[in-house]
Amino acid sequence: MGWWGSLFRSRPPSWSRFDDSDQFDAFIRLLTQRFEAAGIHADPSLLRSGSIRFQAGADETEWFLNEVAQACASAATSAWDRLIDEHLPGLQLPSRAPPATDISSLRLQILSDSYFNSLGLAAGSVVQRRLAEGLLQVLMLDSGGALERTVTPEMARAWGQTEDELFELGRNHATAADKELVRTQSLVHAGESFDVLVSNGFYTGAFVLSALRRLEARPGVILAPVSWHHWVIHSISAGSSLATLQAMSGFVESLAGQIRVTAAESLGTNLFWWHEGTFEQIPFEERDSRREPRPTPALAAVLRGPPSA
Fold first, then answer.
1. Can you spell out the DSSP letters for 97-125?
2. Among residues 252, 250, 241, which one has the least CA distance to residue 300?
3. Cα–Cα distances in Å, from 162 out to 105, 159, 174?
């Protein structure tokens, strides 16, 4: 894997932060027992994915398990029950919990279309916006524990702010939560240079969106949102070319194949051109067993070399 091998994670899954497989297995067994004792059927294979969905009254709810796992990963097994109590107080069903109205817990999360569609949520039941082809911006409530819930239109109206204001607030809160966790690794791959942003937090996307809002330089940036924890970025300069897109795509495919993330955390391998406040997906074409970029004329015009056919 070379010098950037530290970016890649192996079993146990990266979201858990467990280093030992036996310890992770023991954590899953205990968590399964705790859920079952609370009357929530918990398939261990689903718990291993980092989240669990279940019916709470008329609503389907999803709980993310990242933070409780990370707390237990860094503690003695004798402390796990107490930590589960702290992060999942009583494993209380959301339908019986106090309404989540604290706007300070609002976060902006990025989800792939495929994962969002797998949740089976009713149309219009979640406050979300299109970010780019295949990607959504979704407003979430982060309790500071393992429970993360989508924001409904009813919740948004109760706060008395416009949708634009709520998305800005969610982005700012998420950026503040992760800004100390994001680290940047500059690298050269196939003769082309770009940066990899890596974070142990869950809101790297919001961090990137906040940074882009402050970026005025043209002609823009090439971005690859690989997961909640990994973004690959190239700022277009005089030296940028179609070869840059080719090299970046190859690196992104390799990175995505080696990291261990949950279905919720995975964002894909597509490349996007960010310019003038918009994300434009960059088309690729399979030719002679390799993917070749086919940028739009507008993007080709700012890259060195002839435009694509």
1. SPP---GGGEEEEEEEHHHHHHTTPPTTS
2. 241
3. 17, 9, 18
CB hemisphere CA count around 44 (13 angstroms)? 9
- Within 10 Å of residue 80's Cβ, how many Cβ atoms? 20
Whether the upstream peptide bond of residue 225 has omega within 30° of 0, thus cis, is no
Q: Which residue from 63, 61, 87, 69 is spatially nearest to 27, judged by alpha carbons? A: 69
The pTM (predicted TM-score) of the whole model is 0.68
How crowded is the C-beta side of 99, counted as CA atoms within 13 Å?
A: 9
H or E segment and range at residue 225: strand 221-227
CA pair distance 249, 255, nearest whole angstrom: 10
Return the sign of the alpha-carbon dihedral for residues 235, 239, 245, 247. negative
pLDDT in tens, 107-151: 999 999 988 888 777 778 899 999 999 999 999 888 654 446 788
CA distance 269 to 259: 12
Beta strands in 97-199 (DSSP E): 106-112, 128-132, 135-142, 148-150, 182-189, 192-199
Paired tokens of 150: 């989508």
Gap between the Cα atoms of 128 and 108, Å rounded: 9
